[in-house]
Fold:
Amino acid sequence: MAAYKLLLLPGDGIGPEIMAEAEKLVAFLSAAGVASFETEKGLVGGAAYDAHGQAISESDMALAQSADAVLLAAVGGPKWDGVPYDVRPEAGLLRLRKDLGLFANLRPAICYPALVDASSLKPDLVDGLDIMIVRELTGGVYFGEPKEITDLGNGQKRGVDTQVYETYEIERIARVAFELARTRSNKVTSSEKANVMKSGLLWREVVTALHARDYSDVKLEHMLADALGMQLVRRPKQFDVIVTDNLFGDLLSDVASMLTGSLGMLPSASLGGADATGRRKALYEPCHGSAPDIAGKSLANPIAMIGSVVMALRYSFGLGAAADAVDKAIADVLAAGLRTADIAGPNDTPVSTSQMGDAIVAELKKILG
Ligand code: NAD
Structure:
């Protein structure tokens, strides 16, 4: 049986509550013989600041470097609003992304049949929705230099951010999108603003050339980012894999997330480059934050966290069949009417975080026989 090392970083707020449900799933998968998972735990965010005065310690960074995958729940909360900027909770997350070289952020937007009414769009527009947004995560305008506010000395200031991409950065993220499309519906929509931005023009040129060279079997279309935003809420099911830069990906993946009803449902994966053995550094986490408003009350929905384990099974461990089985268990439990408070309708009696986690594992047990 293959053996894998997982680093668990529960973090802050609802983090420990939802991570407990991920741990139940991982323990079950090990016991069921799907694979052997060895887990270690570390601190990140406010929890790490309280313990070490840093948003993540050097020893936990070393564990992250040596793990086959990192599972992170969420960081942050009002308790740490006043801490110095470089040790604020989010700094732990940014350090992990940077040091592990996680340039590809995968955010699926899947609408479970039982939750079509929770979407802000009409049911027939989102029923069966299954989109994967691939966002470039380590370049673009969030990192480009110069990045500054200059005092112009005449009572005015100038703020500058720089959008910058090089060929290799575009190629490696587009490659991830094309490879993913081959495992799905074989279509990639590449998005930028080639009509008004030079970096967008280069983006389109590089994606087109890579497609012609290595991926001509995949259907490729280009769509300006503003048009894509409009199409996402007009006819979202036209998309399969969307690949875009850091800024547009940030915006468009948040729009796509609301098509599915609740933030508590959405997992994500952040992947690095493949090494000689094909192994990628990887971090899996829910899209939502630490939800301090409901922390400690057993109200949190653990499905985004459990879905993050599913993504790890699929993208780090090649356990597609096990991933499909957990996905089916989630869909079955929702179809049976189980709801945490965030997805409950007026006539539902919400279940707790651990009741939802237990129900998913129990359903999985049935599926795997
Ligand atoms: P949030 O995602 O934590 O919460 C937004 C709303 O969604 C809240 O009402 C919350 O109760 C609800 N919600 C979120 N996850 C839920 C779940 N699993 N189940 C049920 N309801 C859920 O965003 P916020 O309130 O803007 O931020 C709170 C803290 O989280 C801040 O400190 C912020 O910086 C941090 N944050 C962290 C991350 C991360 O760790 N990746 C991401 C976003 C925000």
The chain has twelve helices and twelve strands. Residues 14, 74-77, 93, 263-264, 285, 288-294, 300-301, 304, 342 surround nicotinamide-adenine-dinucleotide (CB under 6 Å).
